[in-house]
Amino acid sequence: MVSSTLQRSLFPQSRFIQSLIAFAGGAVGVLGFAPFYAWPCVIVSLVILFTLWTQATSAKHAALIGLAWGLGLFLFGVSWLYVAIHVYGNMPAPLAAFAIFLFCCYISVYPTLAGAVAHKLGKKFSATTALLGVMPASFIGFEYLRGLVVTGFPWMSAGYSQTPGGIIPAPLAGYAPVVGMFGISWLLAITAAALTLLLTRHASLSRRIKTLLPAAIVIVWGAGSVLQIVPWSTPSGAPLSVALLQGNISQELKWREDELSKSLFNYQELALKSRAKLIVLPETAAPIFYHDLPADFLTSLRLRAQNNGGDLIIGAPYSLPATASAPAPFFNSAISMGVAPSQRYSKDHLVAFGEFIPPLFSWVYSWLSIPLSGFTQGGREQASMRLSNHLVAINICYEDAFGSEVARPLPEAELLVNMSNMAWYGHSLAADQHVQFSQMRAMETSRWMLRSTNTGVTAAVNERGEIVKSLPQFTRGVLEIDAIPRQGTTLYARWRDAPVLISLIVLMSLFVLRTPGKTD
Questions:
Q1: What average pLDDT values come out for the chain (520 residues) when binned by 10 residues?
Q2: Taking every pair of C-alpha atoms in the chain, what is the biggest distance, in angstroms?
């Protein structure tokens, strides 16, 4: 992109070797996320990517580097999808492996396009502007699109690396309540670009910039640490006793009719042991339609909640009556019972190929064996549940990957609850990566996030994104915790991703409209 202004090249000029380095750089980035929490690896990964982009001689060359980097990140980071479609979806192993490879190629298209765009636009500017401005904006712009297109797949977005859990505290975590995960991703990209600029010793880099860049990095990262002590919310009442149930029912047994009684008894037994004011069961803890559940099972749960002076939430498919013109719609739902009137939340952000099959891909049904894969969206404007005199906002499984959606019920919602079933992905990185979403959502909203899952990670996350308490994965148990309802609003909850998105659009528009050939 800007190789003509380099005093030195860090990597060989061979495109094949550069592609291998990019692939390795992407793989290194996986270590920056849970369960490793080695966030500096994300910066190293981005420095490798950006350095290779500076050595690209054409847009196609930059695109190839972006593709190789993306494949390294996603093939190592989300290959657990193979477990879902082969082991539990019954797709033949070779076809499942090929399908995952194609999927990783698809999500690698975004860094591929980011490289091509950054190269084309970067030629209009000096090395400093191209690296600090064009490259990070292009990278984050396409990362944002990856979380939006075809229901979105924001997994492994750079900003998630800045959650508590690692040996080294994550300094940029303080920006979560201000600019959210994508804003943090942008700051990480700018940091990596600045380090790239310093490491590659661009001829256009003045002594003044060489001095200012490290100082600017220290100030920005230091401010992130300071922001972590800002009290974005305050308690809205006394701590609420909560029980999060983890039944540990294997996926191969979960939907079997001959195992139904055992599954229901499993969760019934766990619930009846609890004296908590709020008892939460996982997503589809009842693997049959809610209206088909045995009356004595529902009665026992309802009485337990009422005797505790509180409420219980159960995950179950929920069906509405059919009409003359349409079949009965069914939903992935959470239904409450207890002292408060019964309420229902139905998952709105469905997972493509898991909970619904896009019309053009109906042929996939012949290869997959996924129960109830034709869910209906619940609708965006669903109210939070009023339980135990507090407003509780529910999100189901994958929904907590989308910050702007989780923040929608704020500032009214005092607690966040996530109900998931990660048994689909076996013993893999998926569950740990998923709890990192909840950590980020808690930080963005300054609310506790309570996670009840079938096999893990069942956890309570406080408003600072810290995992206060959790159950070991693949164990049966009840997590008892006193959660603190909170009130108040963060800047992110108020504006969500709008400031970052508007800034990206304005900046990229300026880059596009810039007349080629002018100097900075």
A1: 52 91 98 97 98 96 98 96 86 90 96 98 90 97 94 95 94 98 98 92 67 91 96 97 97 89 97 97 96 97 98 96 77 97 96 63 55 80 95 96 97 98 93 97 98 97 98 98 98 97 96 72
A2: 77
Active site residue 105: no
3-state SS class at 352: strand
Q: Is 283 a catalytic residue?
A: yes
Of 457, 396, 421, give the one whose Cα is nearest residue 249.
421
Catalytic residue among 143, 283, 355, 463: 283
Which of 124, 254, 347, 463 is labelled catalytic?
347
Amino acid at 470: S
Q: Which residue has the tokens 């350095």?
A: 51
Torsion (CA) 163, 168, 172, 176 in degrees, nearest 10: 20
Residue 262 annotated to the active site: no
**Bridge partners (DSSP) listed for residue 270:** none
Between CA 289 and CA 34, with CA 458 as vertex, the angle to 5 degrees is 125
- If you write DSSP's letter for every residue of 18-82 in order, what string do you get? HHHHHHHHHHHHGGGSTTT--THHHHHHHHHHHHHHHT-SSHHHHHHHHHHHHHHHHHHHSTTHH
Question: Of these residues, 397, 399, 414, 463, which one is catalytic?
Answer: 397
Contact 140, 159 (CB under 8 A): no
Report which DSSP code applies to 285.
S
pTM: predicted TM-score of the whole model, two decimal places: 0.93
Question: At which residue do the structure tokens 């800047």 appear?
Answer: 491
